[in-house]
Amino acid sequence: MFKQTPAPVPAGDLAASLAPFGQSRMLPRAAYVDAEVFEWEKLHIFSGWHCVGQASDLDGVGAQKAVGSGANGILLVRGEDHQVRAFANVCRHRGHEMLACGATAKRRGIVCPYHSWSYKLDGELRKAPGFDAAKDFDSSQFGLAELRLVNWHGYLFVDPSGADIDFDEHVAGMEDVIGPYRPEDLTVVARHSYELATNWKVIVENYQECYHCSTIHPELSKISPPTSGENLDLPGDWIGGWMSMIDEAETMSLSGRSGGVAIKGLSEQELRSVMYLVGFPNLLVSLHPDYVMTHLMTPLAVDRTHVECAWAFPKEALDKPDFDPSYAVDFWDLTNRQDWTACESVQRGLSSPHARPGPLAPDEDGVYQFVTRVARAYSGSR
Ligand code: FES
Ligand SMILES: [Fe+2]
What we know:
By secondary structure, the protein is α+β, with helices and mostly antiparallel strands. The chain folds into two domains: 11-34 and 179-351 and 358-378, Naphthalene 1,2-dioxygenase Alpha Subunit, Chain A, domain 1 (Alpha-Beta Complex), CATH 3.90.380; 50-163, 3-layer Sandwich (Rieske Iron-sulfur Protein), CATH 2.102.10.10. Helices cover 25% and strands 24% of the residues. The protein is built from twelve helices and 17 strands. The protein has helices at 11-18, 30-33, 35-44, 167-170, 175-178, 200-207, 213-216, 218-223, 268-271, 315-318, 326-350, 365-378, and strands at residues 50-54, 63-67, 74-78, 84-88, 104-106, 110-111, 118-119, 125-127, 146-152, 155-159, 187-196, 230-231, 238-244, 273-279, 283-287, 292-301, 304-313. The strands form three sheets. Strands 1-10-9-4-3-2-5 form a seven-stranded antiparallel beta sheet, with no helix packed on it. The longest helix is centred in the last third of the chain and has 25 residues, at 326-350. It binds FE2/S2 (inorganic) cluster and fe (ii) ion. Fe (ii) ion (FE2) binds at residues 206, 212, 217, 339. InterPro entries: Rieske_2Fe-2S, Rieske_2Fe-2S_sf, Ring_hydroxy_dOase_asu_C_dom, Rng_hydr_dOase-A. Pfam families: Rieske, Ring_hydroxyl_A. Its cofactor is Fe cation. One of its GO terms (molecular function) is iron ion binding.
């Protein structure tokens, strides 16, 4: 992220969040319940690098999809050269969205649904009805506004502001962690869509600790001891850590058995553990020995978040005649729902005027990394 104006939260509360681990407090209550803070986050956090989906979501030349909305409305398009591009989702005529948020299309051009201006797949204006004879109308001046986009291991990241740090800095330290799983070669075979009545940060904070696991995840705790593993210390905008599995388990599933095939080339450590990563701010990536699960969060309001969970498997698993991804999907759908119940309860709790930022337990150092990352952004620094 980049230097910015401070968020509308009390500076004293931020100082408490930024105190050394062991003495610090959670983010101020306003961070979770105040619509003004949410608006600030849209302008100052989600206007920088954030994930907008996977390249495989845009299947073939001419595939189009609108994501985000308002200031961060983005149109994704796969061009004639097979590259995915991102444009501001706004027509250069009078501002209509090219597609409604979440909508998809597939055609050899981009057509505005209002007065039918049409653009090439690279954003250049092709035709503006009625302007053919107009003198001084220079169509090259009216192309769609292209945004910085990077396709990193199949994940699409966009910087609508154009002012965020270099993408390499954003993902510094991640190549060695994610690279061996080659997510770009995996196939998404299952997706679940959840709409949660909670702030997006409550979901990340929950993901960043297993202090709650023995209480609310009996199935997970049987396969992966809640106190196992450790958090990474990464130089870029990503945070995360790994947890190990019991010796008898091959992967995270109800039985610990895998119904798939291990991803080729993983190390012994990678085959015995699961890596849980947060691509700040909105992508959660869980690297398993035999599949990669992602949670892509789209904040809808201060107390509402859309989460799309996707499970991707290697080709060798899909080639198995009896391949059934439900061993992974059912396990995590159950675990997700246990988490969502807790996250929504936290949101209701935080809506009480009596809620105060609480302290962090020794096992919540991952939460500390996230909270301090947000608190630094709120205070106007990196
Ligand atoms: S607003 Fe798009 S054609 Fe008029
Ligand atoms: Fe959980």
